[in-house]
């Protein structure tokens, strides 16, 4: 087999040719140009992705979700639409369906929820990804995995480039998620090399926006809900740990570009603006209520101390970079949280 250069410059064997589409795909009822499966499509990012893909009249969108952290409510505007279908399905079980593209998002993302049943989180990442790759292989579909900046663990390189192999605890309480996603990435590349599957791997950095669960447990939704309820903002110690927050519309744009482009990834998709958790709390206070208290509380084990994406690759290969600044994104999210919490803005 001929040698070729991978995107990070390593020499790898040329992958096999991708499998042809399943003959079942072209039934006599075939209408759309593209039939797209989104696993985890009832969740926060997934439902925004559905909205964007449904804007294209040539797309037919199918969501498969077990509603562990997602909700039908996020998709209510599409219920009954002729180009939309919602299936209650757990990705740890095989799915027989004819599609052209798969956005594989299914996995609890908030640390509170992925630690709730860690064995199930691993099964979702490993067996779920195997099932979706098996489906991609059978029908010749292109598949995109939403991996995470957590594959870099508590990073010793800053900012993180895609060539960094990470610093991950394999036996810690976060491992079900970060090691689970690392195995999911491995499976993606093995199916690509061994079976010629067309893969795309996105490494997403902390994303926020409307429709996050109010009591999701992640920092932006926690601070906003606390601020609107007039409660103290719980900064986990020491508060100097950093994150880089990407608004959900920017993220979705990046995912669609990655799926449509020719690079397999892995590719970082995130906003390089970096903030400490204390700075984030101060920003939320300033925007919503300057009288709020900030309370330092205990942290959880293995919390990464710093995180910031190097997005050189997504700029060059996807011509993508985030547009929404943190303050603007927080204001958009505040509107959604006010509506859902029933808290009116006093001017
Ligand atoms: N939001 C972020 O900051 C972020 C960052 C990095 C990676 N990601 C990844 O993006 C994806 C979506 O994240 P999100 O923030 O929208 O989270 P979310 O929890 O809102 O959405 C996850 C969805 O997957 C569904 N799900 C979970 N387990 C399932 C299973 N076994 N079978 C079928 N459906 C299942 C949930 O019900 C939910 O609808 C996840 O894969 C996550 O790891 C998110
Ligand atoms: O973007 C990523 O790659 C990953 O980031 C997040 O994991 P994490 O960064 O730990 O997200 P949060 O739970 O929002 O925590 C961010 C920081 O805020 C702090 N925090 C959290 C909650 C809170 O109330 N207060 C607080 O200070 C945490 O200690 C942590 O340092 C997501 O939850 C994962 O799904 C995702 O894969």
UniProtKB/TrEMBL annotation:
<dbReference type="GO" id="GO:0048040">
    <property type="term" value="F:UDP-glucuronate decarboxylase activity"/>
</dbReference>
<feature type="region of interest" description="Disordered">
    <location>
        <begin position="1"/>
        <end position="24"/>
    </location>
</feature>
<feature type="domain" description="NAD(P)-binding">
    <location>
        <begin position="37"/>
        <end position="333"/>
    </location>
</feature>
<dbReference type="InterPro" id="IPR036291">
    <property type="entry name" value="NAD(P)-bd_dom_sf"/>
</dbReference>
<keyword id="KW-0520">NAD</keyword>
<protein>
    <recommendedName>
        <fullName>UDP-glucuronate decarboxylase</fullName>
        <ecNumber>4.1.1.35</ecNumber>
    </recommendedName>
</protein>
<keyword id="KW-0210">Decarboxylase</keyword>
<dbReference type="Pfam" id="PF16363">
    <property type="entry name" value="GDP_Man_Dehyd"/>
</dbReference>
<comment type="similarity">
    <text>Belongs to the NAD(P)-dependent epimerase/dehydratase family. UDP-glucuronic acid decarboxylase subfamily.</text>
</comment>
<keyword id="KW-0456">Lyase</keyword>
<keyword id="KW-0963">Cytoplasm</keyword>
<dbReference type="InterPro" id="IPR044516">
    <property type="entry name" value="UXS-like"/>
</dbReference>
<dbReference type="InterPro" id="IPR016040">
    <property type="entry name" value="NAD(P)-bd_dom"/>
</dbReference>
<feature type="compositionally biased region" description="Polar residues">
    <location>
        <begin position="1"/>
        <end position="11"/>
    </location>
</feature>
<dbReference type="GO" id="GO:0070403">
    <property type="term" value="F:NAD+ binding"/>
</dbReference>
<dbReference type="GO" id="GO:0005737">
    <property type="term" value="C:cytoplasm"/>
</dbReference>
<comment type="pathway">
    <text>Nucleotide-sugar biosynthesis; UDP-alpha-D-xylose biosynthesis; UDP-alpha-D-xylose from UDP-alpha-D-glucuronate: step 1/1.</text>
</comment>
<dbReference type="GO" id="GO:0042732">
    <property type="term" value="P:D-xylose metabolic process"/>
</dbReference>
<comment type="function">
    <text>Catalyzes the NAD-dependent decarboxylation of UDP-glucuronic acid to UDP-xylose. Necessary for the biosynthesis of the core tetrasaccharide in glycosaminoglycan biosynthesis.</text>
</comment>
């Amino acid at each position: 087999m001929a040698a070729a250069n991978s995107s990070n410059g390593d020499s790898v064997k040329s992958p096999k040719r991708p499998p042809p589409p399943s003959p079942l795909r072209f039934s006599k009822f075939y209408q759309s140009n593209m039939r797209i499966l989104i696993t985890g499509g009832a969740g926060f990012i997934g439902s925004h992705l559905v909205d964007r893909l449904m804007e294209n009249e040539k797309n037919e969108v199918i969501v498969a979700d077990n509603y562990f952290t997602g909700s039908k409510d996020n998709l209510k505007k599409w219920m009954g639409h002729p180009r939309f279908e919602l299936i209650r399905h757990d990705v740890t079980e095989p799915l027989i369906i004819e599609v052209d593209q798969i956005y594989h998002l299914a996995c609890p993302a908030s640390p509170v929820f992925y630690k709730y049943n860690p064995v199930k989180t691993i099964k979702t990442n490993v067996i779920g990804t195997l099932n979706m790759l098996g489906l991609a292989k059978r029908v010749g579909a292109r598949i995109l995995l939403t991996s995470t900046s957590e594959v870099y663990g508590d990073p010793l390189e800053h900012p993180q480039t895609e060539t960094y192999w990470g610093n991950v605890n394999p036996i810690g309480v976060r491992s079900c998620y970060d090691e689970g996603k690392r195995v999911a990435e491995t499976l993606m590349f093995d199916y690509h090399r061994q079976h010629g599957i067309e893969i795309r791997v996105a490494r997403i950095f902390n994303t926020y926006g409307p429709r996050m669960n109010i009591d999701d447990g992640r920092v932006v939704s926690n601070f906003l809900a606390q601020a609107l309820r007039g409660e103290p903002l719980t900064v986990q110690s020491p508060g100097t740990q950093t994150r880089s927050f990407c608004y959900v519309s920017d993220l979705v744009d990046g995912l669609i570009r990655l799926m449509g482009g020719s690079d397999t990834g892995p590719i970082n998709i995130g906003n390089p603006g970096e903030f400490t958790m204390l700075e984030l709390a101060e920003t939320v206070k300033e925007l919503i209520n300057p009288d709020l208290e900030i309370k330092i509380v205990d942290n959880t084990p293995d919390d990464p101390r710093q995180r910031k994406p190097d997005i050189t690759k997504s700029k060059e290969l996807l011509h993508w970079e985030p547009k929404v600044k943190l303050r603007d994104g927080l204001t958009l999210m505040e509107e959604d949280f006010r509506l859902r919490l029933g808290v009116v803005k006093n001017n």
